[in-house]
Specification:
Length: 691
């Protein structure tokens, strides 16, 4: 072990040191500067900053300035001598050498020239050294400038990285801000949903309270309706029992005949007997039916016919005078003429004479269709219709109370009817919403802009009846929307929504007296005398004169002149007892033929509208008769709906009391206690909507 250590120390380490020393020396050997190049500055690469290099550069510039000052000093020292003194100084060595021999002098000259050459060579060498030094300094400056550029680039890179870090930190901050904003919006949505839920809960509570109030209000009405329904069912059961007994009798008769036929098969004599029996039964049935007709006819009041009036009624276009019903004491045919006859002032004959003079200038034109009757719609352009549910409304808690028109004075209130006095006359006004909602599952009201109210009635089958009224209760629009979304329009007069008319004005006052030009049988049907007529064809006929514009339902109800434009059916087969609006089941069956005709018309256009008018005789006060007549019209409408399935929204009702008598008498008269039906569709909506 000791020998090996000795050998390593004496042999190996010297060799390693020899190998390693040059390598390391080459790495750390300092640069050698020639002593003949005092201006050369050694620059080593350093990673120092710009601030550290600036003092070093300043020191180098000072040293260069000192060296240049030393070189210029001899010149400055000689600069103070004159030209003669300088020449003496140059000659002085020559004078000093003048005493030497030629050989020595030559030797001296050669040495002098050698020294000059050496000095010149030294100057050249110095010049070259200075040139090299300058080149070296230039390169060093360029290298330093390159280092400065690199330093600037590194500084820029550091600045760029700093900005990127700051931008990244800003992005993180923005991300956090966005996250906070999302959280805030989420909380706001949750709060809003909570508010909506509370709003819905409050709405449900209001609806529940409204239903409770309506249920409380409707208990009395429901009790009355149930009582009436029980009476109705009792009557129907009695009628059904009678029908069952008849059915059993007929069944027994058929069984008897069948047995007789089976027993008499093959027997010609028996066959003939059966034929005779059938003939006998047929004759008996015909005799019984004839007897029943005679009894019914005997019960109905008849008036003696007036031949002169009948002649005029067959062709009214030949006269300008007022046309009366063709029997003794018959009143005027047109309701507008009855109104004119009942006015106060001059005698009736004088008023009729003036009215005949006004009719002379009336142009006669009988429309060929509903479209032809509506003046302004001949071009066939379709009307732009807006749905009854187009606007968003705000639910009401209760049924609305409408504003009163200027000049209207309430005289009396009876149930849901109001007797109003205006223009020296009285009318009865009722809300048909209760009649329409009798079979509804829900009825609610919504407030619309401009004081309007929308009433929505929901039926058990999903149909909705939508009615929009003005602030005065006028029907602006009514339609039925079925489960499939199809909408059928009954009334459509949106122009009154834009035209504020607080005072009711009869539009018929602006028209000339009506001149009837069609035969009376084509204008009025009496169901008692015209039982064989085609009622559906009669109802589909157009108005008897042009219709200037679409009128509101109230304008049609309260203007006799406007109603006279359409034909009418007098239901004189329904007779009311004095002071009563009840309809018996036997009389309800007399409406079958008229009801079938109305249903046939509705099958073609579900948007048709019929006006049911109630009338009384002249016994009793005007106010009582108005209310009674309105109840009679509603009773007929209910029978048409309950028994014959005519939708209630296709029916409008109005009572007129004793205002339009059929027989001109102040006493009790059965013919005056009647109901009239008119198809008023071409008056209350554009016909193009149906087409």
């Amino acid at each position: 072990m000791g020998k090996r250590t000795t050998l390593l120390a004496t042999v190996a380490l010297p060799i390693v040191s020899l190998v390693w020393q040059p390598v390391q020396a080459a790495m750390i050997r300092p640069p050698v500067v020639d002593s003949r190049m005092p201006n050369v500055i050694t620059v080593q690469e350093s990673d120092g900053s710009e601030e550290e290099r600036k003092p070093r550069k300043k020191k180098e510039r000072q040293e260069d300035g000192e060296q240049q000052g030393e070189r210029r000093k001899p010149n400055r020292d000689n600069a103070g001598l004159g030209d003669g003194e300088q020449r003496q100084e140059r000659r002085k060595p020559n004078r000093d050498n003048a005493g030497l021999g030629d050989g020595d002098q030559q030797q001296q000259e050669r040495q002098e020239r050698r020294k000059k050459r050496e000095s010149a060579e030294g100057d050249d060498q110095q010049q070259q050294d200075r040139q090299k030094a300058r080149e070296e300094r230039r390169k060093q400056r360029e290298a330093a400038e390159g280092d400065d550029q690199q330093q600037q680039d590194r500084q820029k890179a550091r600045e760029e990285r700093k900005k990127q870090r700051e931008a990244a930190e800003g992005d993180d901050q923005q991300q956090q801000d966005r996250q906070k904003a999302r959280e805030e919006r989420k909380k706001q949505r949750e709060a809003a949903e909570g508010d909506d839920q509370q709003q819905q809960d409050r709405q449900k509570a209001r609806e529940e309270r409204r239903k409770q109030r309506e249920a409380a209000e409707g208990d009395d009405q429901q009790q009355q309706d149930r009582q009436k329904a029980r009476e109705e069912r009792r009557k129907q059961r009695e009628a059904a029992e009678g029908d069952d007994q008849q059915q059993q009798d007929r069944q027994k008769a058929r069984e008897e005949r069948r047995k007789q036929r089976e027993a008499a098969e093959g027997d010609d004599q028996q066959q003939q007997d059966r034929q005779n029996a059938r003939e006998e039964r047929r004759k008996k049935r015909e005799a019984a039916e004839e007897q029943q007709r005679e009894e019914d006819t005997a019960e109905r009041p008849r008036r003696k016919r007036d031949e002169d009036r009948e002649r005029i009624a067959r062709d009214p276009s030949r006269t300008n005078e007022t046309i009366d019903l063709p029997f003794v004491d018959g009143a005027a045919v047109l309701d507008s003429d009855k109104d004119f006859d009942n006015r106060k002032g001059s005698a009736r004959e004088e008023r009729r004479r003036k009215r005949a003079e006004e009719r002379e200038n009336v142009k006669i034109r009988i429309p060929e269709s509903d479209r032809d009757a509506q003046v302004g719609w001949q071009d066939g352009d379709r009307v732009r219709y807006e749905s009854g549910e187009r606007e968003r409304g705000e639910r009401r808690d209760r049924r609305p109370r409408y504003e009163e028109r200027d000049g209207w004075r309430v005289e009396r209130e009876v149930d849901d009817r109001v007797v109003i006095n205006f223009n020296d006359g009285i009318i009865v006004r009722s809300d048909d919403g209760r009649r329409l909602s009798r079979r509804a599952t829900e009825t609610y009201y919504e407030d619309l802009p401009h004081g309007r109210v929308r009433e929505v009635i929901v039926r058990p089958n999903g149909d909705r009846v939508v009615t929009i009224r003005s602030r005065y209760g006028d029907v602006i629009q009514r339609s039925r929307i079925d489960r499939s979304g199809s909408e059928y329009v009954m009334f459509y007069a949106p122009e009154i929504d834009r035209d504020a008319r607080p005072t009711f004005v009869d539009p018929g006052e602006r028209l000339p007296p009506m001149r009837l030009t069609v035969p009376l049988d084509d204008y009025i049907i009496d169901t008692s005398s015209d039982d064989s007529r085609d009622y559906s064809d009669f109802l589909e006929r157009p108005p008897v004169e042009p219709v200037e514009r679409v009128y509101t339902l109230d304008e049609v109800k309260y203007s006799a002149r406007i109603r006279d434009k359409v034909r009418r059916i007098d239901l004189d087969t329904i007779t009311f007892a004095t002071g009563s609006s009840e309809i018996s089941m036997n009389q309800a069956s007399s409406l079958r033929k008229v009801a079938e005709a109305m249903n046939k018309v509705l099958d073609k256009d579900p948007g048709e509208t019929f006006l049911i008018e109630g009338h009384t005789d002249a016994v009793g006060s005007d106010e009582s008769n108005l209310v009674l007549s309105d109840e009679r019209a509603e009773a007929v409408a209910n029978v048409l709906t309950d028994v014959y399935d005519i939708p209630p929204e296709n029916l409008a009702t109005q009572g007129y009391g004793e205002r339009f008598l059929k027989i001109d008498t102040d006493g009790p008269e059965q013919l005056n206690r009647r109901v009239t039906i008119r198809r008023v569709t071409p008056l209350v909506k554009p016909v193009a909507m149906a087409e």
